[in-house]
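FAQ

Q: What does a record look like?
A: Structure on top, sequence underneath. For example:
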């Protein structure tokens, strides 16, 4: 039965459970901790020998993000197709959840100079987080009616923002007030925070796993899992080929998401390395972004009800263009805070509306939703790979993160042009 309150709450609770990874690991504490801990011992050089490649610690970080999402882009479509074939959506969601959470726990052992451990634990935490999100998103059209997609999607992101802020504030007390915890070092406080992310994620995910729809006990007949996984993937691919509006939206999403995700993942790195802002200023900035994002998610859900999803998303993408241009000229802490407020406002809207818009464009009565959302995820992950890679490459070539941020406007403009050709109403498919 769709729109069951307990099921909907269980669905939003997984956002509460996993979003601590997005905030603590990829946005707030880990991006600041990584360049400090990822140094070459005993020289303490920022130039690292990584499998024979000479990379700066900040470049290695951006490349690690790229590789993590590249692994997701290649593995998740096949795994999601297998899950649709076997009817084991929740099993695979759990598998990725535990991979990500355990990887976060392993980061506790990422001490100074142990950059191989830190890089791979971070990389696989991304794989676990991103893989579980595919299956989580695929429940949306299964548990709710279409008129509830925008609101439920916004509610899910809001739960994620709130949960992640609560845990981050707790972890901040360790980082900023170590005397409250027996005088532990700042590095140890950071590593404990990575451990708490894994624990939080696993514990709160249990509520979602218990109340979300059970896996099917009947799997499709014939062949083995992997072979039929490829067949399932091919079937959905051919169906998407005939859904012109859905295909056009995915192309637009690919480009504008390239810019948005790069800003989200590397914004703290920009503040610390380009503006030389202290850790406390960066973490306050991330908290500000999360709180403003709640308002943005709900506001743009309301706007979409009035003007349609496409126009609402277009307003957001145009805002991102101006944000990237403004970031090029930012020099002070207060200017960075003002910019972060704008980022938070459009971040909540672009994530929430993109997910609900795609859900509306999936054919009605579709049972293989995981396979459909895997294509959405491929666009999401590959665009993040290219965006973060290009950010690192432009930074490496020019020596300026400001040029990297300014370059992102190209992706937003291309996405906006394609989005203008996507009607808001599902009837136009």
């Amino acid at each position: 039965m769709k729109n069951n309150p307990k099921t909907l709450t269980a669905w939003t609770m997984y956002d509460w459970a996993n979003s601590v990874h997005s905030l603590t690991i990829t946005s707030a504490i880990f991006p600041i901790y990584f360049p400090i801990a990822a140094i070459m011992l005993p020289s303490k050089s920022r130039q690292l020998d990584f499998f024979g490649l000479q990379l700066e610690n900040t470049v290695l970080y951006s490349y690690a993000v790229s590789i993590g999402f590249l692994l997701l882009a290649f593995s998740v479509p096949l795994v999601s197709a297998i899950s649709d074939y076997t009817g084991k959506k929740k099993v695979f969601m759990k598998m990725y959840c535990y991979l990500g959470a355990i990887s976060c726990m392993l980061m506790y052992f990422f001490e100074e100079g142990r950059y191989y451990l830190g890089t791979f634990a971070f990389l696989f935490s991304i794989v676990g987080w991103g893989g579980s999100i595919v299956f989580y998103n695929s429940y949306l059209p299964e548990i709710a009616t279409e008129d509830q997609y925008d609101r439920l999607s916004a509610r899910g992101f809001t739960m994620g923002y709130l949960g992640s802020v609560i845990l981050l504030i707790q972890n901040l007390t360790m980082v900023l007030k170590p005397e409250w915890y027996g005088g532990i070092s700042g590095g140890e406080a950071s590593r404990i925070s990575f451990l708490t992310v894994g624990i939080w994620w696993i514990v709160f995910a249990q509520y979602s796993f218990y109340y979300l729809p059970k896996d099917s006990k009947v799997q499709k007949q014939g062949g083995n899992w992997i072979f039929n996984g490829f067949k399932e993937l091919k079937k959905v691919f051919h169906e998407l080929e005939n859904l012109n509006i859905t295909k056009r939206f995915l192309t637009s999403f690919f480009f504008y998401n390239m810019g948005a995700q790069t800003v989200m993942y590397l914004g703290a790195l920009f503040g610390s390395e380009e503006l030389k802002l202290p850790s406390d200023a960066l973490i306050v900035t991330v908290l500000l972004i999360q709180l403003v994002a709640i308002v943005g998610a709900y506001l743009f859900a309301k706007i979409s009800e009035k003007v349609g999803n496409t126009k609402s998303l277009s307003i957001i993408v145009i805002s991102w263009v101006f944000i990237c241009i403004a970031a090029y000229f930012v020099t002070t802490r207060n200017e960075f805070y003002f910019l972060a407020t704008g980022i938070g406002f459009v971040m909540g809207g672009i994530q929430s509306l993109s997910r609900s818009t795609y859900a509306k464009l999936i054919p009605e009565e579709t049972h293989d939703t995981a396979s459909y959302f895997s294509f959405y995820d491929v666009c999401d992950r590959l665009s993040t790979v290219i965006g973060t890679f290009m950010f690192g490459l432009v930074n490496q070539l020019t020596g300026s993160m400001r040029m990297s941020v300014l370059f992102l406007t190209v992706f937003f403009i291309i996405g906006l042009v394609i989005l203008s050709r996507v009607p808001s109403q599902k009837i136009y498919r």
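Q: Is there anything notable about this one?
A: The first strand starts at residue 47 and ends at 50.
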